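Homework-ish question, so no full write-ups if that breaks the rules, but can someone show me the predicted structure for this set?
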Amino acid sequence: MPRQSPLDLPHDDPFGPHNLPYGVFTTPDAPDVRRIGVRYGNHVLDAGAAAAAADSPHAALLGHPTLNPLMAAGRPVWQAVRAELRAWLTEEARRPAVEPLLHPLTAVALHLPFEVADYVDFYASEHHAANVGRMFRPEGEPLTPNWKHLPIGYHGRAGTVVVSGTPIGRPRGQLGSPSGHTLPPFGPSRRLDFEAEVAFVIGAPSPVNTPVPLSGFHDHVFGVCLLNDWSARDIQSWEYRPLGPFLGKSFATSVAAWVTPLDALAAARTGPPARDVPLLPYLDDSAAEPGAFDLRIEVALNGHPIAHPPFATMYWTAAQQLAHMTVNGASLRTGDLFASGTVSGPEPHQRGCLLELTWSGRDPLRLPDGERTFLEDGDEVTLTAWAPGPDNNRVALGEVTGRIAPSAR
Amino acid sequence: MPRQSPLDLPHDDPFGPHNLPYGVFTTPDAPDVRRIGVRYGNHVLDAGAAAAAADSPHAALLGHPTLNPLMAAGRPVWQAVRAELRAWLTEEARRPAVEPLLHPLTAVALHLPFEVADYVDFYASEHHAANVGRMFRPEGEPLTPNWKHLPIGYHGRAGTVVVSGTPIGRPRGQLGSPSGHTLPPFGPSRRLDFEAEVAFVIGAPSPVNTPVPLSGFHDHVFGVCLLNDWSARDIQSWEYRPLGPFLGKSFATSVAAWVTPLDALAAARTGPPARDVPLLPYLDDSAAEPGAFDLRIEVALNGHPIAHPPFATMYWTAAQQLAHMTVNGASLRTGDLFASGTVSGPEPHQRGCLLELTWSGRDPLRLPDGERTFLEDGDEVTLTAWAPGPDNNRVALGEVTGRIAPSAR
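A: Not a homework solution, just the prediction itself:
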């Protein structure tokens, strides 16, 4: 029996020709030479080499060590490159040239696929925001009065965005109020958490004083990736008044190694939840194309599934977030990353962080390897997701995984 | 009488050989060729050309279009380059070679001198925080319970940091609660403000999980510049609960065109205010070298001085801010920018923003060209500052100025 070609995928492979996410990889023989790769099944196509072999007009764009130049090129180029990639991977006549350019995933190292410009994190799940409000501000209404009028967001630390697989050092810091002592408690966080999120990556920039309307979403957003916004709840709850999260989040944010092109998720578009209050014109998507994405996320802790957050239930869409983020005149840069905030659905098993899943530690999770309230050293959190694709196929997003390392000192 | 040389400065020129701030400039004949410049009096030395002419080992570092490579090189290199610059500008024998490399300030264009990595803004003036607390949260204590235990900060938008002189478009946005109507009020901000701040620029990076102690301040901070954190108070006060400022700040932040080396401010070091509560060891500077800087700021509105904020009165020092920012394990990148927050002293004329100076618009300022509560289109805000230097000389910081342009649409 002949060896099976990596180009022969099962027709329902979730990383088939309808997906084609982009990443950046190195091979062991050239660990300093970063190359753009495209995932196909469990292999990585060396996209720059494939483009050079095909004498593609986009060979230079695909020959960079990051995705940024391709991302900056704009949607017509993204679509042309995607069509070329599909042809290279599926046309019979190209097999002899393309097959040698495929590397098994297990034989490459994956890197942060793009240089992050600014990182913004939103707070777009009504279920998450209400649950957190009940826990952090039990004296008040679960949602702040502004919550249904605008997508609340804040800037995070771009310099500590790391690729899936990077170990996450347990952060140290002030863990709460002095409460009777002279000094606040200090040390490694005791309430370390993950947040299951979906992030969007800006490709085409926008100038200052030029807000991006809802309809401009496709022209600026290059792709989508899973994101884990690691959070130290004890540090966060002590520091966040009045200027928001800072050290409780800034130690690390993990993103997947694969950026899924927006066009791969066309079949996953769906209508957002009904709005409870009228929206200002720049946010009103009642006449726009469906702005939500039907992504089904799974959270696994040490290999055990612990939650299934449904991205389609988010109150605010990514298009609304982009319109809001720029309505004040702020510009966009290639590599800007904005994330949804924790994805939590209405059901208890759909909650996207331990703070909610254990109700702030009151209800521990029972796992085969013991109970959990918050993350312990050595714990590994893995987010995966899939969306409906064309022809009843699934489109998988690249996983984002990270293991907790003990505090450094 | 012979033409006076730009190398002949009055001995008390605040941009004399004891100062030597760095910037990036272009000349009209080569508007695309950005060059590193050093300010000397009212001239700019082409530092790259001077280094090449002197056959300096640092010619390559000074030949870049931004300061980032020089900033990344670390303190021993900063000190060596500074000594070379002083020699080039002051040694008699070098005059014929150096004089032609000086351009009048009026003949060059100045640019953002470094690529901003992450931008963090602190909230370090007790007087400012207490005044804002009284206005924004009149029902509670002026300071939140954490305020004297840690330097509160948050991440701002790096992509909208602009150089002094850039026009500032009036931001649009949601201006407050719907209060009886179905939609929040929307339009150009009616409460546009400045914030007089001092910013610190990271040169040498630090790895993850390696906090920078108070004593590491000099090894990582390359220099200092004035910063205006433009703020739309109506947008900010509606959006900021619970995750902090976002669109009320992200439209623009202006920095000076000149970065003053930390070593130029050695004579300006002074002790910080007495602490009211004990501090954790990583923040306790009672045995450290004096952590405050005696910078005297002036704020001018359309040329009229309206405030004189004293930087030495800040409760938290930049060294404490740096120690706090990294205590959780967050890394530093070359180009990280962190700012003090509004500098306000205890006296009314020492307040660093209109929100405080007019007490939220209640007490308008009387200027020769009319009353002001908040900024009007066409208003120009200019921050200048000086510090005590060696030999009773003054060290001036480069100004930061900006004029308000009408909302774009």
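Now go work out the reasoning yourself. Hint: The mean pLDDT of chain B is 96.
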